[in-house]
Design a protein that fits this description.
This protein is α/β, with parallel strands linked by helices and 418 residues long. The chain contains 14 helices and 17 strands. A hairpin with a 4-residue loop joins strand 11 and strand 12.
Length: 418
């Protein structure tokens, strides 16, 4: 789809009316220019309404209550699980586990699978662009099991150095953990190719889909993904809800990460047995209302169409890359737009990213500044922090102009202050 076609077919004005937060005015009567979706996405009214409906009409704990409210809430929860299953192309709903978010999902694999099956001399392969949530759990798993960590290096433009895989992957490789899309560079990684390469040496692949799942179609079966983690709040759903997909045979073989109520079959004085999937990994009270809200968010995104969303966001990315790249003294990190998602991380000469974020905020523009939970990546980039503008289908080309003008104004302010 051409970018012109994307603009013609995507009615961003109508979409923005679905998000009540954009009706507000900020200090100075400025409109909100929200360019921080990579951190958390705004919520459409239909998701908010679904949460209110749950709490006001049939709020009750799920699975164990033998009454009308509990039955309705349980039905809504399991329907949400089936929506997630279809959304990511999983074979069966029991392969979809509800967690608190991407971080919990990745830790679940690290504790439930890696610590059980890794042995001294095994290797975990990561990339240098990983979020801390897809790095620190594997560090601890390696320390606990005697496994070693290896890293796929990056090309100068921030893509995986795939030519290095031949020397990195080996029969000792048991796990490849990689992001679907970098939360800093925006790099979209070739997950299907990586899965084939990992499986060829007998390894499993874990995909951090926190950034990729909300913005492009994912099919865990077609892509050969063994484990997929993502968060609801980045998919226009509630906070506090996430998903771990795992192939059934892998989940069956794993040990539970959390224990307590609901995840047991029988409890004796000195031992217990586990419930069937997915309950085995959903100890305690499920985040059931948030899960239903995630289901509503998936309905909303699918009604818009992921392909239309991807095309429109790519057009925004191209425009932002061109307009920001034209600013003197501004450096953009990561590959060219054809190899990345709608994230632009950058630095500006003479203006620290934290100062820049504060100054553009005064113009009503919300961006993020810092190391974005990727300290090793920033060390590789030889910067301590970057500013990040991340786009969604509710953003407009005009908001990119506002951001560019705000950056130039910040530059002028700092030049006057020198």
């Amino acid at each position: 789809m051409s970018t012109t076609a994307a603009t013609t077919e995507f009615d961003v004005a109508a979409v923005r009316r679905d998000f009540p937060i954009f009706a507000q005015r900020l200090a100075g009567n400025r409109p909100l220019v929200y360019l921080d979706t990579a951190a958390t996405a705004q919520k459409p009214q239909c998701v908010i309404d679904k949460l209110v409906e749950c709490y006001t009409e049939y709020n009750a704990n799920v699975h164990r209550g033998i009454h009308q409210l509990g039955d309705r809430m349980t039905l809504e929860l399991e329907q949400a699980r089936e929506k997630v299953q279809r959304f990511i192309g999983a074979t069966q709903p029991e392969e979809v586990l509800f967690t608190s978010g991407t971080t919990m999902s990745l830790n679940l694999v690290a504790f439930g699978w890696a610590r059980k099956f890794l042995t001294p001399g095994d290797e975990i392969v990561l990339s240098e662009m990983e979020h801390h949530a897809n790095l620190v759990p594997w560090q601890l798993a390696a320390q606990a099991t005697g496994a070693a960590l290896k890293f796929i290096p990056l090309t100068p433009d921030g893509r995986l150095e795939l030519d290095a895989l031949d020397s990195i992957l080996s029969p000792r490789t048991k796990l490849l953990a990689v992001t679907g899309m970098s939360n800093v560079l925006g790099t979209i990684n070739p997950i299907r190719e990586l899965a084939v390469r990992a499986h060829a040496v007998g390894a499993k692949i874990v995909v951090d889909g926190a950034q990729s799942v909300p913005h492009e179609a994912t099919n865990v079966v077609a892509d050969g993904i063994d484990f997929l983690a993502f968060s609801g709040h980045k998919l226009y759903g509630p906070t506090g809800i996430g998903v771990l997909y795992g192939r059934r045979e892998l989940l069956e073989a794993m040990d539970p990460f959390l224990t307590g109520g609901h995840m047991i079959r029988e409890v004796f004085r000195e031992r217990s047995t586990w419930a069937d999937l997915p309950a085995k990994f959903e100890a305690g009270t499920a985040p059931f209302v948030d899960a239903v809200g995630l289901g509503a968010a998936i309905d909303y995104v699918q009604a818009l169409g992921l392909e239309k969303i991807r095309a429109y966001e790519h057009e925004l990315l191209q425009q932002a890359s061109a307009k920001l790249g034209a600013i003197e003294g501004l450096t953009i990190y990561g590959p060219s737009p054809q190899h990345k998602g709608a994230i632009v991380s950058f630095t500006v000469d003479t203006v620290h990213p934290h100062d820049l974020s504060d100054l553009v905020d005064r113009e009503g523009v919300a961006i993020r500044a810092g190391h974005h939970c990727t300290m090793p990546l920033h060390e590789l980039l030889q910067v301590t922090a970057t500013a990040r503008a991340s786009f969604a289908f509710y953003n407009t080309p005009g908001e990119i102009d506002v951001l560019a003008d705000a950056i130039r104004a910040a530059q002028r302010k700092f030049r006057r202050g020198r």
